[in-house]
Amino acid sequence: MQARGLSRRFGNLLAVDNVDLTVGRAQVYGFLGPNGSGKSTTIRMLCGLLSPSAGAIEVLGLQVPQQAEQLKRRIGYMTQKFSLYEDLSVQENLEFLAAVHDLPRARARTRIAGLLQRYWLTERRNQLAGTLSGGQKQRLALAGAVLHEPELLFLDEPTSAVDPQSRREFWDSLFQLADAGTTILVSTHYMDEAERCHRLAILDQGRLVADGAPRELCAALPYAVWLVDCAAPRRAQQALQDQPGIVALAQIGAELRVLAAREGWDAASLQHRLGDCGIAATVRRGEANLEDVFVAATQKPVRPAATGAAA
């Protein structure tokens, strides 16, 4: 799947701004970004539900949106609101979707039975969908999305309404699909989910601000991570806030995590700054994580550190 120069306007709002994407076969490709960053709009354009204002899209060898009708039979799409008929049973939901996809009856019966077993829904087959738990609804929605064995699966924030255990089980199911050859494009705002993806795109205000494997993105982070251990992490945060070259500050338990420009700050200069404010602290180097990458990619421009700050 490829997109080049993909843009979408809604009146004066540029929701997606000149995005280039390449998604390889059988990859789990993640979209990470804050609300309003253009994730859902991009997915809707890629699967042919929304026409781009500019740009070219090729999905499974088809031109989109020109060949969107042909594409529909080869893709699955699952939204965060779970497109289920709550007054139908689990079995009836899947039978209805099988009819929508024109599956032959024998194949539909076999496929439904297999999916009910795979997603732990066999004992719930006669239960109304509206009475299922969030995790059960999620599994049913995924079963419906893959019922016709799509080559490509689009998932728009599919875990936003479920508990951590259900999220973990859901991701295990995604990797089973990818291992079987299904290409998966999933949007999320959870960092731990983004780290699971083979490749990741970070969107901010409609722009693609980072693209690569999670480890590659962490290794390429242009800032240093420092961990500050002191008795008053909130005071330490206030002492470093708005200092030139300081990109981000976050208290993690009793520790302060500092993202800073490589030039201008080191352990000694951070300790010196905190000491000037009456705060005794030890500072050590930390490892970059995906949250650091996200903060760096979506931040406002940072003032450079003053010359000699690390002296």
Automatic annotation (TrEMBL):
Keyword field: ATP-binding, Nucleotide-binding
Superkingdom of this protein's organism: Bacteria
GO molecular function: ATP binding
Alphabetical list of SMART domains matching this protein: AAA (SM00382)
InterPro entries the UniProt entry points to: AAA+_ATPase (IPR003593), ABC_transporter-like_ATP-bd (IPR003439), ABC_transporter-like_CS (IPR017871), P-loop_NTPase (IPR027417)
ABC transporter domain segment(s): 1-230
PANTHER family for this protein: ABC TRANSPORTER G FAMILY MEMBER 20 ISOFORM X1, ATP-BINDING CASSETTE, SUB-FAMILY H, MEMBER 1
Protein name: ABC transporter ATP-binding protein
Organism: Tahibacter harae
